[in-house]
Specification:
The complex is a heterodimer. Chain A is of the alpha+beta class. Chain A has helices at residues 20-26, 78-94, 102-110, 147-152, 191-195, 204-211, 263-267, and strands at residues 2-7, 10-15, 50-53, 60-61, 72-74, 135-137, 162-165, 172-175, 201-203, 221-226, 235-241, 244-249. In chain A, a hairpin with a 2-residue loop joins strand 1 (2-7) and strand 2. Chain B has 3 domains: 11-181, Dimethylsulfoxide Reductase, domain 2 (3-Layer(aba) Sandwich), CATH 3.40.228; 188-377, 3-Layer(aba) Sandwich (Rossmann fold); 425-535, Barwin-like endoglucanases. Chain B is built from 20 helices and 21 strands. In chain B, the strands form 6 sheets. A 6-stranded mixed β-sheet of chain B has the order 17-19-18-21-16-20. Chain B has a 5-stranded parallel β-sheet with strand order 3-2-1-5-6, with helices on both faces. Chain B is 31% helix and 17% strand. The chains are: A alpha+beta, B alpha/beta.
């Protein structure tokens, strides 16, 4: 059923069941997100997408709140901007975001976030975990967006190798009983790496280049091709730097993969010299 | 199927199925991203039946695992067909309007009572009955299979037996209903579509039909041989008999991958000339007189591949091949030049456009359309055609369009390599998640879940034959013997052994397998080898006999 609502200055139409974020995006109103992704079920934990809805006392997460007829939504009010700025400041003051996706770093600038206001506050400390030759997990960079948990679980992979353990500031991503990754249920599809927005999860090959100062995304080209390791036809985006493949991803909007791959698709390229 | 050599459905359809059957397919490991679509279907409420001698990672997601005996697939399918007929679950309207051979099938499957089917398959009668009623009651059935069906001496008959079940219940030619053979390589489908099978030309044209050959002869200005060539198994027989003296192998490693490997390598060794074109110096390449180093098709060359839903997609060169390695096309063109034929400059798009001019199914698939539409599913007849998500909708027109779909009477026969007192154990082979074929490529990335080629056994089997987890035993078949490390697993029934074939340098599994092959498809029976276990050294192994 089609309904009408107001988003900022415009009356827009929407379908029942759409979220505020869906409708806003369709009408060119961008709402920042961190824990939302098109191929994952919203978990609304990051609170970056909050908007003001007339009649609602608290701000509401646009990623998961369904629209209602005659709703009045403000996506960029002073209250909304203050809240987003605060969220960004708290995250950036406790977690190392220097390898986060560019959109997140842009938002810190856009909202005038000053993480240094909380410089004396608690920060995440965890040793870098490298327990095999494929993954690096650097949880000092983790904002607990749950995307990896969702991708490993019932939004894609159904392996359920990881979850959030602990409480409060000590909450963290963990395997079952905190076992080493090679001993866990992990099947190394890398679908967690694919959705991580902060660089907490990276392929070892990327991590090594980054540590060496040899990771240069601005000099990388991306070529789309098809994986060779079975007959499904998963699309691969080959990220090439200095004439070498340095990373493989899959397009999140492709109807075969929805951005997901298996261990062969995501890491099998390493047989190329 | 019914004259079209491809699966009938799109992956997306399995998300809308109400009954999913994986028969001889461990898609969770062998086709992991297809399995994501299966999972989406399960989450929407579909029930799933996995038919496999092993309790695989796929079976772990099933409502019911049917752990039949290796090679009893036709027995099960015929038994299920009989039960569907006996219980009145046949789609009579569809059978009458769109198929041939129903009465003959009724007669053929009549002996396959639940009692007899249970005896041959090793499954409980009630499970067979429930399975038949699930298929018979399905509104949208997706019936998927892989090499568990086709690596048998009855490969083609196995497929016919499964097609019968879909036809009996009207589960083909509609969205959500269909037959899905999952292909093992990124271009198995495309290779067949392009005529890389003995009796076909590109577009599945019949080589033996002069009118179908004519357009190719006009295009190529040359006579096309009217006699079908040899399939792989026949080629090896011809090598043994000496009638095939020269072999050019492109991107295949038969020295490791052929059944009865010693026999196969002897054939390769006896050739006058062996030319191998590959990415790596494989075991086959090491035997060659001439090796052409080739580029990696999926990352270093341009072209197209066709997937298991008949979707043609572009592969694109992202990096230059190393050293002297070259695009396959350039190598072929240069060889043509050496034989005195100037084919011009090698260009993948030019070759593709020639395919489009000769194959009606591909006519509408320009590179530009493949690029902008993210691939197209054949048939795609012209530039306005968006391709076919599913095939055989014509069977639901009344009257139907085109020929009727035939039901095929097929008889079960046991695997060629029979079990007896000397070879009492059944060995079956298959892929694991992080491996691909003979490991030429997948052995070259550091997989943390790589297990190597172990001889997997149930604990009960290990106990019966007095072997331990981790023990190295001699595995003996009627062809040869190799040492293997025993691993005890929970996924196997008693008296069934399993191993992968991804690590021929660790365990040369194909020294064991039999080269008995299906006379219709030429596929060897990799899935059913008779073996026994021998202690390697009775003294160091604690005196076990």
């Amino acid at each position: 059923m089609t309904i009408e609502l107001r988003i900022d200055d415009a009356i827009v139409t929407a379908e029942q069941g759409d979220t505020i974020r869906d409708v806003a995006a369709r009408h060119g109103v961008e709402i920042p997100t961190l824990c939302w992704a098109a191929n994952l079920t919203p978990v609304n934990v990051c609170r970056l997408c909050v908007v003001e809805v007339e009649g609602s006392r608290p701000l509401v997460p646009a990623c998961s709140r369904p629209v209602e007829a005659d709703m009045v939504v403000s996506t960029n009010s002073h209250r909304v901007r203050t809240s987003r700025r605060m969220v960004l400041e708290l995250l950036a003051s406790s977690v190392d975001l220097d390898r986060a996706e560019p959109e997140l770093l842009d938002q810190i600038e856009e909202y005038g976030a000053r993480p240094e206001r909380f410089a004396a506050g608690a920060t995440k400390h965890a040793p870098v975990k490298q327990q095999d030759e494929l993954y690096v997990r650097d949880y000092q960079r983790c904002v607990l967006c749950y995307k990896c948990v969702e991708a490993c679980g019932d939004d894609a992979q159904h392996t359920f190798a990881i979850s959030v353990a602990g409480r409060g500031f000590d909450a963290h991503i963990s395997t079952e009983f905190d076992t080493a990754l090679p001993d866990s249920a992990c099947v190394y599809c890398g679908n967690c790496i694919a959705v991580c927005p902060t660089g907490a999860l990276t392929p070892l090959t990327e991590f090594v280049r980054r540590e060496a100062g040899e990771w240069r995304p601005d000099q990388q080209s991306v070529t789309r091709t098809v994986c060779a390791f079975c007959g499904v036809g998963c699309n691969l985006d080959l990220h090439v730097q200095d004439g070498e493949v340095v990373k493989v991803t899959s397009p999140a909007d492709h109807d075969i993969t929805q951005g997901n791959l298996c261990i062969k698709g995501r890491f099998g390229w390493q047989h190329l010299r | 199927m019914f004259g079209a050599g491809g699966g009938t459905s799109s992956y997306r359809e399995i998300e809308d199925a109400d009954v999913i059957v994986l028969w001889g397919s461990n898609a969770r490991e062998a086709h992991p991203i297809f399995f994501h679509h299966v999972l989406a279907g399960l989450r929407k409420g579909a029930s799933m039946y996995v038919v496999d001698p092993r309790r695989t990672a796929s079976a772990a997601f099933a409502d019911v695992w049917l752990g039949l005996d290796v090679g009893s697939d036709i027995a099960l399918a015929n038994g299920v067909a009989r039960e569907i007929i006996a219980a009145g679950l046949v789609d009579r309207e569809f059978i009458d309007a769109a198929t041939d051979g129903f009465d003959e099938l009724v007669t053929a499957v009549e002996p396959w009572t639940l009692d007899r089917t249970a005896a041959i398959t090793g499954l409980p009668q009630l499970q067979i009955r429930d399975f038949a009623h699930a298929i018979g009651g399905a509104r949208r059935l997706q019936l998927c299979w892989t090499l568990g069906i086709t690596e048998h001496i009855t490969a083609v008959d196995n497929v016919f037996a499964l097609i019968n079940l879909a036809l009996l219940t009207g589960n083909v030619g509609r969205w959500g209903s269909g037959l899905v053979p999952l292909r093992g390589q990124n271009n198995v489908q495309g290779g067949g579509d392009m005529g890389a099978i003995p009796a076909r030309l590109p577009g599945f044209a019949d080589l033996t039909d002069a009118s179908e050959r004519a357009p190719f002869e006009r295009m190529w200005q040359a006579a096309v041989p009217s006699r079908p060539g040899l399939h792989l198994s026949q080629m090896f027989e011809a090598m043994h008999s000496g009638s095939l003296r020269a072999l050019w192998v492109i991107g295949e490693n038969p020295a490791d991958s052929e059944a009865d490997g010693e026999h196969a390598r002897a054939a390769l060794g006896a050739l006058d000339i062996l030319v191998v074109q590959d990415l790596y110096l494989t075991r086959t390449a090491a035997m060659a007189d001439v090796v052409f180093p080739a580029a990696a098709g999926w990352a270093e060359t341009d072209g197209t591949v066709t997937n298991s839903e008949r979707r043609v997609q572009r592969v694109r060169a992202a990096v230059a091949p190393p050293g002297q390695a070259r695009d396959d096309l350039a190598i072929v063109f240069d060889l043509a030049a050496a034989f005195g034929h100037d084919w011009g400059a090698p260009n993948a798009e030019t070759v593709w456009n020639e395919v489009r001019s000769l194959s009606r199914n591909h006519a509408g698939m320009s590179y530009q359309r493949l690029d902008t539409l993210g691939g197209l599913q054949w048939p795609c007849l012209d530039d306005d055609d968006l391709g076919a998500p599913f095939l055989h909708g014509r069977l639901w027109a009344r009257p139907i369009e085109g020929p009727r779909a035939p039901l095929q009477c097929v008889e079960w026969q046991p695997p060629a390599d029979a079990l007896d007192e000397h070879f009492p154990l059944r060995l079956t082979t298959g892929r694991v998640l992080d491996g691909y074929n003979t490991g030429v490529q997948t052995a070259r990335f550091p997989s943390p879940i790589r297990s190597g080629a172990t001889l997997d056994l149930a604990a009960a089997t290990a106990m019966r034959y007095a072997v331990d987890d981790g023990e190295v035993v001699r595995v003996v078949s009627r062809r040869g013997a190799i040492p293997m490390t025993v691993r005890i697993v929970e996924s196997l029934p008693p008296d069934l052994a399993f191993t992968t074939f991804h690590f021929p340098e660790i365990a040369d599994v194909n020294r064991l397998t039999a080269d008995a092959w299906d006379p219709k498809s030429g596929t060897a029976e990799f899935k059913a080898t008779a073996i026994r276990l021998e202690s390697i050294d009775a003294d160091t192994q604690g005196g076990r006999a």
